[in-house]
Design goal:
Residues 187-204 have a biased composition (Basic and acidic residues). The chain is an all-alpha fold and 222 residues long. The protein has 8 helices and no strands.
Length: 222
């Protein structure tokens, strides 16, 4: 099989794990020792942006864009490595006076939270979010616990218990199983799905080779 590496003379290193710290040029003190990321941004990204990024004047400070992008990248890495971080972000958004300081900068970027919610669904099944009833149950317990923990002098990262919202995929599958319907759970539900499938196939008659296929591939599945 042919190699998929676009540069076979420089294969990716499993040991490559640069420090993802970036200080904009305008904030760096004299003789600041640049991180590898800062060197890369200064010598490659900024040069590219100045030459090809549209709708920006020649004197535009791209450092701000790079700083924002790095914050987004680091936040995605953080949640990918520890999905429970997203639960703390949601708690902080609904309880701004009790937000974990470690996720405060993520909370301040609503579009980033949107991205993290969708990525969590793709990778882990999503969260049941407030104000849905199952999430409210978690919130009620967590609010009582928060009062007790703070009275005991506990803090985030020093004794506070993390908030955990229900997994949306598991919650959905559980509901489907109880009603024996959509989702194929229960024998009655399976038989109903078979009948619906037959009706759909009848209705698709005469549509040629595309019969039974959605726009996303075979039957529209993932």
């Amino acid at each position: 099989m042919a190699s998929t590496n676009p540069n076979p003379n420089n294969p990716p290193s499993m040991l490559w794990n640069p420090q993802m710290t970036y200080l904009p040029g305008s904030l760096r003190p004299p003789l600041h020792p640049r991180t590898l990321l800062e060197q890369y941004a200064d010598e490659s990204i900024l040069t590219f942006y100045r030459a090809y990024k549209p709708h920006r004047p020649g004197n535009y400070n791209h450092d701000t864009d790079i700083s924002t992008t790095i914050r987004i990248s680091n936040a995605i890495d953080l949640v990918d490595s520890n999905p429970l971080v997203l639960d703390q972000i949601i708690w902080g958004m609904t309880h701004p006076h009790d937000a974990n300081p470690g996720v405060q900068d993520i909370i301040e970027m609503p579009v980033l939270v949107d991205i993290l919610l969708v990525r969590h669904f793709r990778r882990h099944g999503g969260l049941v979010l407030p104000p849905l009833e199952e999430a409210r149950k978690v919130v009620e317990v967590a609010e009582v616990r928060a009062v007790r923990e703070k009275a005991e002098g506990l803090r985030w990262g020093a004794g506070r218990e993390l908030v955990r919202y229900p997994n949306w995929r598991d919650w959905r599958d559980g509901r489907a199983g109880l009603r024996g319907g959509a989702g194929g759970e229960g024998e009655e539900g399976k038989e109903k799905e078979k009948e619906k499938e037959k009706e759909r196939e009848k209705g698709m008659g005469g549509r040629g080779r595309g019969r039974g296929r959605g726009r996303g591939g075979a039957r529209g599945g993932y």
